[in-house]
Amino acid sequence: MDNSTSDIGDILSRIKKAFVTRFSLRTDQADDDQIDHNIRSGVELNGTYLWTLMCAILIASIGLNINSAVVVIGAMLISPLMGPIMGIGYGVGIYDFRLIHKALKNLAIATIISFITSAIYFYVTPLNEAQSELLSRTSPNIWDLLIAVFGGLAGIIGLTRKEKSNVIPGVAIATALMPPVCTAAYGFVHGNMSYFLGASYLFLLNCIYIALSSVLVVWFISPEARRKINEKLQFRLKAFLLTVVFVSCIPSVFIAVNFVNNQIFNSNVSTFISKELVFDNTFPVDYKSSYKNKTISVVLVGHELNEQTVEDIRKSLAKYGLPDTKLELKQVGVHEQDINAIRTALAKDILANNNQEAQKKEQILETIQAEAQSAAQKAKEEKETLYKGIADEVYIQYPDVNELFFADAYISKQSAENKFSEVPTVIVLSKKVLKKDVKKKIEKWMKYRFQSQNVQIIFVNR
User: Fold this and answer.
1) Which end of the chain has fewer CB atoms within 10 angstroms, the N or the C?
2) Could you give all domains of the chain from N- to C-terminal order, each with its CATH number?
3) Residue 334: pLDDT over 80
4) Distances in Å between the alpha carbon of 408 and those of 283, 368, 392?
5) Which band of pLDDT confidence, cut at 50, 70 and 90, is reported for residue 353?
6) Are residues 327 and 290 in contact, defined by beta-carbon separation less than 8 angstroms?
7) 461: nearest Cα among 425, 426, 427
């Protein structure tokens, strides 16, 4: 029994030792002097640093302006902004207030130069539209905070190693310090305070949590450069850090909650449309939804749905988690523009690799087109029959009439706010001027034959 217990203890001890060895930060840690030198040199603000910074910020601005993720990533690789932020964290970790002051000052100078450089670019560029790469930096949330934390941890661990690695460039890409500055500059130049404040908050969030991560690692490795300060000052410093961390994360939590709710809403809308708006000869070609306004607007093409079906669809919103959502259905017929809309919808499905849905819509489209063509042909034949009958009867009753022109005229009246109305029109050509009573008889008879009082009769003699 004792031997068995001893064996288990040895196994657990070896597992613990292997675990500690594997995850130890001491194994390849640089000596304290090298760590101190590496971090302090990154804080320095010299000519090379500033020129590199301005080039990086211009590249990032262009990348955001033309919506190129590759260009933005390239700018982040060049960016030297990580140095002062790591310096702040290291300074707090070793209680070097002079280093903290220097790093803060240099970070502020670098940020101002970056902001001005980017603002000048966005002021002179002819491309003014905000692209998706830029918009993604305007609503920071809790996930951006977590990226900054883990990025900061990876960054300070990389800086404290003997051998240089690709950790720092990777952290620069992940935490994305440059794009928020560019986005803030864009918002400032174009007077969009929402963009300016959102991007500024994201930049501030990144700086705070990268520095915080650095502080935690520095406290853990306890370098020799760490100074001793009295417990009261230590307590005040830690209380200040906790306050900054707590206050800075509050907005991101609210934004994250709104983001999650918005994603859930959009997912529910997508499920609702795919489940409830599926019919044999009708399908949605486009839809827009708004979580803020709780609205869904859907464009349907094909056979028109009756009122009862529409009401049943609206009642089904609740079971998809959309109880207070307003549904607007726009049902359109199959005209040329509607065919184009359907083709666009089919292209979207194909691009999304949704071939099955695309094939289904293609079949429905072919059926609808065939029905529309058949209906159009039938209407044309009916009109031709009507016109031929009218013409034959007119020529027999009124020999002086030698030609008839039939058309559907579009009439606009100023009193009707320039709205157009379609009116059947007949131009009567006669060899000589017809008498008034003959004209009245023709007008009366035409209205009877067209079954409409709005028929326009124009008499012309030649």
Assistant:
1) N
2) 15-228 (1.20.1080), 262-369 (3.30.300), 398-461 (no CATH)
3) no
4) 32, 25, 20
5) very low
6) no
7) 427
